[in-house]
């Protein structure tokens, strides 16, 4: 895994986005669909098509990072130890390569929200009932995790075997989580809650390595500056801090969702924490 020169890499990504915009114009205009011209508050051009200014936000970095759900029931203990068991091979495989580790883990972290959101979507259709906003909240989580991946992609360059590993892990994890959610949503959400607790720990270790100088604190990728509304002089360290705050929010949402199930209620009976990040 190599660290790229940020300025070159950022410029290339911006150019790619601009080229995409230019290439699309002739196709979409036939259908009467014109790409909307989006600008930032300062009037400069918005360079991203994957998210828009109104989807960007300032992360709440004051969130409590230490919160932990003590596993008391059999289901909780199973969720907790499943996550702990998954951590050992991850620690051995990645050692202290936290940039690479973050990128690979985000490929997994972006799956549960999408799977759970899809299952609730289908349930809403089958039962002719509202979702309480949970479909949206869970899809938001998946998209937020995918943006973490899009960000860490900028500072890491996965090798072919790491890409192969992602494909294999996705094949197994997506199906396992799908089954797990169908059988027990309270277990599935609890497990994601613990996964997020581990993610917070991983990013804290990442920050320690950055502070020790073992990982170069390069300028923040352009996509991260726009997504989290970071100031111009921001660095990779600032990005890790806001990503870690996002993980703490996901932890809360998933433990909360599991608690709702524990109270014998369905998620739709409790308004979803849309926009909680
Ligand atoms: Fe993440
Ligand atoms: Fe997360």
TrEMBL record:
Transmembrane segments: 102-120, 164-183
InterPro entries in the cross-refs: AOX (IPR002680), AOX_sf (IPR038659)
The UniProt record lists the keyword Oxidoreductase: yes
Region feature (Disordered): 1-21
Membrane-protein topology: Multi-pass membrane protein
Cofactor(s) required, per the database record: Fe cation
Oligomer status and interactors: Homodimer; disulfide-linked.
Record-linked PANTHER family: ALTERNATIVE OXIDASE
Family: Belongs to the alternative oxidase family.
Protein name per UniProt: Ubiquinol oxidase
Organism: Stylosanthes scabra
Top-level taxonomy: Eukaryota, Viridiplantae, Streptophyta, Embryophyta, Tracheophyta
């Amino acid at each position: 895994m190599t660290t790229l020169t940020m300025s070159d890499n950022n410029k290339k990504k911006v150019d790619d986005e601009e080229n995409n915009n230019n290439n699309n114009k002739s196709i979409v205009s036939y259908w009467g669909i014109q790409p909307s011209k989006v600008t930032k508050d300062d009037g400069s051009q918005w360079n991203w098509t994957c998210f828009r200014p109104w989807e960007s936000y300032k992360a709440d970095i004051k969130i409590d990072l230490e919160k932990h759900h003590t596993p008391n029931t059999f289901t909780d203990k199973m969720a907790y130890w499943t996550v702990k068991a998954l951590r050992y091979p991850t620690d051995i495989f990645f050692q202290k390569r936290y940039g690479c580790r973050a990128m690979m883990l985000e490929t997994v972290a972006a799956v549960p929200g999408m799977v759970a959101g899809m299952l609730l979507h289908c349930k809403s259709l089958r039962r002719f009932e509202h979702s309480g906003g949970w479909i949206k909240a869970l899809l938001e989580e998946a998209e937020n995790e995918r943006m973490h991946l899009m960000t860490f992609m900028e500072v890491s360059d996965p090798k072919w075997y790491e890409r192969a590993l992602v494909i294999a892990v996705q094949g197994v994890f997506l199906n396992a989580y799908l089954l797990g959610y169908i059988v027990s949503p309270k277990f599935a959400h609890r497990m994601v809650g613990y996964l997020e607790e581990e993610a917070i720990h991983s990013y804290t270790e990442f920050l320690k390595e950055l502070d020790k100088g073992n990982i170069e604190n390069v300028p923040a990728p352009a996509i991260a500056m726009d997504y989290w509304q970071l100031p111009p002089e921001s660095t990779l360290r600032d990005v890790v801090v806001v990503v870690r705050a996002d993980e703490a929010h996901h932890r809360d949402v998933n433990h909360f969702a599991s608690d709702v199930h524990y109270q014998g209620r369905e998620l739709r009976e409790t308004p979803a924490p849309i926009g909680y990040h």
